[in-house]
Write a structure and sequence with these properties.
With about 210 residues, this protein is of the alpha+beta class. It is built from eight helices and seven strands. The protein has a seven-stranded mixed beta sheet. Strand 3 (about 135-145) and strand 4 (about 145-155) form a beta hairpin. Helix 1 (about 10-30) packs antiparallel against helix 2 (about 35-55) and helix 2 (about 35-55) runs antiparallel to helix 3. It starts with 9 loop residues before the first helix and ends with a strand.
């Protein structure tokens, strides 16, 4: 049914305008997301709202454009789910040019997790790899049988959707189990990092440590 805007009350027209503004606002807000997954979800929702608004006012070209955007967003989300098994941990060459470039590129953020930037001296320094792209660094020391002290667990902004942490620190993941590791311990004074640790299952201890057992 095509709405005749001239026959609508001021209140109804205002409601329609609000729907349109909400759709546009959600789409714009999505570009403030650092996570690609969140961007796709929020942008897709905004596109759906904008499609409904455009159909109500019979603006078919706008409706078609937003419908295509929504379909593309949700298709990319589907593809991202298929890539969930493409997570890898690869040894980092600490003295290599790429490692030095990576640390320099993200030095400001890395310093908020390890102020002295000593994580490169850890017993194990690994790259997080997601969909064939380096997504971050994990550095840790094995202090005793089955126990690991995490020196740094850093993911670049593009991939901060908790998926890497959930995958590698989950009880169903075999990577660390095969290495005989069953407990992770870390410390942090970074509020954002605390949120991340909670989301992936670390528990705060009275000693000031965060602990995750698998």
């Amino acid at each position: 049914m095509i709405l005749d805007l001239s026959q609508l009350s001021d209140t109804t027209r205002m409601i329609l305008e609000v729907i349109g503004y909400i759709g546009s606002g959600v789409c714009v807000a999505s570009f403030a997301m650092t996570s690609v997954k969140k961007l796709r979800i929020i942008n897709g929702i905004g596109a759906v709202i904008s499609t409904i608004y455009a159909l109500l006012i019979w603006a078919l070209p706008i409706a078609l454009m937003n419908l295509i955007i929504a379909v593309l967003d949700f298709y990319q989300l589907y593809k991202m789910r298929k890539f969930s098994d493409a997570f890898e941990l690869l040894p980092a060459s600490v003295g290599g040019a790429y490692f030095k470039w990576f640390v320099d590129r993200y030095s400001e953020e890395l310093a908020t997790f390890d102020e002295s930037m000593t994580f490169a001296d850890a017993q194990h320094v690994l790259y997080y790899v997601r969909a064939n792209e380096v997504a971050g660094i994990l550095a840790y020391d094995v202090k005793e049988a089955g126990r690991v002290d995490v020196r740094i667990d850093y993911v670049i902004p593009k991939y901060r959707d908790f998926e890497l942490g959930k995958y590698f620190f989950d009880v169903h993941n075999s990577f660390f189990k095969e290495a005989g590791i069953h407990e992770f311990v870390t410390k942090t004074t970074n509020p954002i990092h605390e949120i991340y640790l909670k989301r992936i299952g670390f528990k705060y201890q009275q000693s000031g440590e965060w602990v995750k057992r698998i």
